[in-house]
Amino acid sequence: MAKKPHATPNLDQLESGPWPSFVTGLKRLAKDKDMMVDLLGHLEHSYETRQGYWKGGTVGVFGYGGGIIPRFTEIKDENDQPVFKDAAEFHTLRVMPPPGMHYNTDILRKFCDLWEKHGSGLIAFHGQSGDIMFQGATGENVQKAFDEINELGFDLGGAGPAVRTSMSCVGASRCEQSCFDEARAHRAAINTFVGDIHRPALPYKFKFKFSGCPNDCMNSIQRSDMAVIGTWRDNIRTDEALAKKWFAKHGLNELVNDVVGMCPTRAIQLKEIKDVSKDANVSSVAVNDSQALEINNKDCVRCMHCINVMTGALAPGKDKGVTILVGGKRTLKIGDLMGTVIIPFMKLESDEDFEKFIDLAQRTIDFFAENALEHERTGEMIERIGLMNFLEGIEVEVDPNMVSAPRTNPFVRMDGWDEEVARVKARQAAA
Amino acid sequence: MSQPQMRKPIESGVPDNKQYMHPLMVKNYGNWKYHDRPRPGVLHHVSHNGDEIWTVRAGTQRQMDVHTIRKLCDIADKFAEGHVRFTIRSNIEYMVGDEKKVAPLIAELEKNGFPVGGTGNSVSMISHTQGFLHCDIPATDASGVVKALMDELYDEFKNEEMPNRVRLSTSCCEINCGGQADLAIIIQHTKPPRINHDLVANICERPAVVARCPVAAIRPAMVNGKPSLEVDEKKCVCCGACFPPCPPMAINHPEHSKLAIWVGGKNSNARSKPQFMKMVAMGLPNNPPRWPEVAEVVKRILRVYKEDARPWERMADWIERIGWPRFFEKADLPFTKYLIDDWRGGRANLNASTHIRF
């Protein structure tokens, strides 16, 4: 039995209503743990005053420089003593999840047991960078909890100016749109740079994210320094039985309005079967006895819309790989930045392909480490130095797929134009 | 004087997920053909060799006590096949290889208070941050805001009645850890930091704080004989970037830290290219424990989107079709001068055409 609970009239109001209540969970923990009694008091005080009361500090585990988020209370009495003394330290362990966030009940129960013993009993699945967050341990218990978690085969994630914990989608394990082995790429990258996760020494954070197709369920373009997104080069695959089944259920109006009409590059047309092009770059599939969809794959930008609507009837091609974009992040400091293309396509299947990918990631991180200013993200660095300087630094050739449009102003020194034309032509001839 | 022997960490990095994955998913890895949704909250995937797997998705509170996690495990062991996974929005997924197990699993989840839904054209769980519970710089809470809003949006989670999927996020400061979304709720500060000059010299690395400011409004200064920092309050955009590296520059305020609503963020490449969200409402009070003023605006925007958007139009696609003037009119939100972008590159957000809807 824990000590007497504090009055929590604000938090109590979050126990009603149909959605699962975290407050009810906190109260269950507070039955046995003084720490959680005081954590509830601490949180209630924030609700009353509309202010936060945690400060950071320095807490770590032996051998690592990051991965623990230290939290010390700032609610003190007139003698500078913590008002909620059993929650005066409430540190978090960030632990990297398996790719796709798969678990069995055995490992989850082990997490629960060790965290009930060493910590508060509160675990978040998952934080915004993908970490399992074991929330609420004293400084003394952080090492004990980590040792047990580590022995189970799990490791701390990133914090501060470091390579950060990554996320990958459910991907190949259960999604027909998957265009590469997301989990393998995720592990290959993160486990290569694990030293840069555990010993923060970069100018600022560096995030990888892995999405199996351009639906980008991991939101990698907007929130990772290196976004690895599945795509394909050959023709969209089709399945006539599933196409006819779809058409029988949805009809011509939906086919025209929701599929043909919403293609962003007008690559899809509805045609009489006899008029369908025989061109090698065309995919087609009959939807009934007389009409077929015709897709010009040269015009298709692999946006996924038609495949999302008619899943199975239409599917990504077989010549799969990834597009890599660099530099996404949210506002601070210079304004929002999307990741932009640096590798339009690369295969990611053989051991050699994965080595090439890791080599690219290594060159990118090395260049970032040497050239970014303190607290500057990859995208901000590229904004400052220009994409060309970045590409030269990581030894990647220019490609028109990297731009939405060529330059619209003449303000550039171009005295190297002729040599550059010769170089580009020589490269094309050699390819 | 020898130190106690410390355990050396095993730098194992990310574990192999195959050891935790449902066996049918291991067997059919990379070989799935298509899926459909028999009902909201349930996915049915079929592989090229004919294997089938059913997934039941349920909402959680994300911040879970061990008793809740053990309950979820009990359900997995008794009604599913012992394997679960989590989505990026903290929904839990149970996988079963037999359709007959779906209905009893749903019943058990619902009986224990875990709503089944969040698939397809639903409003899924709100992606969120730590807030008052654990963050060192929050101006509001996260889990509480989400609990309050999901209570209001409960039916939209359990049904698939929206034009396309709806993704929400909340963030307790302008760093926006919750991320881009169809609709996001983010703190917006309205007053410059209040500086405790007695503490700055001891706590803050002053050049680093000066460098952090996006509008160069901070400069070193001697105040009351102590080295400190001062803020040009006319230049300050109240973003709060100086607060994390320098806690004596208090930016959070119970009254002046307001909530803003942003719409039209889209990370998918489907149809249009990915888009950033845009601010459409501001000045909403930070009003725990249930933030009713925020909930009212969120529900209003979602209602007009639901009524007016065509099938497959995400929030951004819908607004692109109807135009911003009609969005503000339909959502009954005032368009003010503060919503005109004057940050660098902001000119790209002006209307350089005669494309005007009358």
UniProtKB/TrEMBL annotation, chain A:
One of its GO terms (molecular function) is dissimilatory sulfite reductase (NADH) activity. It comes from the Bacteria. Residues 85-151 form the Nitrite/Sulfite reductase ferredoxin-like domain. Transmembrane segments: none annotated. Keywords: 4Fe-4S, Iron, Iron-sulfur, Metal-binding. The keyword 4Fe-4S applies. The keyword 4Fe-4S applies. Residues 160-397 form the Nitrite/sulphite reductase 4Fe-4S domain. This is Dissimilatory-type sulfite reductase subunit alpha, partial.
UniProtKB/TrEMBL annotation, chain B:
One of its GO terms (biological process) is sulfate assimilation. This is Dissimilatory-type sulfite reductase subunit beta. GO terms for cellular component: sulfite reductase complex (NADPH). InterPro entries: 4Fe4S_Fe-S-bd, 4Fe4S_Fe_S_CS, DsrB, NiRdtase/SiRdtase_haem-b_fer, Nit/Sulf_reduc_fer-like_dom_sf, NO2/SO3_Rdtase_4Fe4S_dom, NO2/SO3_Rdtase_4Fe4S_prot, NO2/SO3_Rdtase_4Fe4S_sf. Its cofactor is siroheme; [4Fe-4S] cluster. It comes from Candidatus Desulfobacillus denitrificans. PANTHER family: SULFITE REDUCTASE [NADPH] SUBUNIT BETA, SULFITE REDUCTASE [NADPH] SUBUNIT BETA-RELATED. Keywords: 4Fe-4S, Iron, Iron-sulfur, Metal-binding, Oxidoreductase. One of its GO terms (molecular function) is metal ion binding. Residues 227-256 form the 4Fe-4S ferredoxin-type domain.
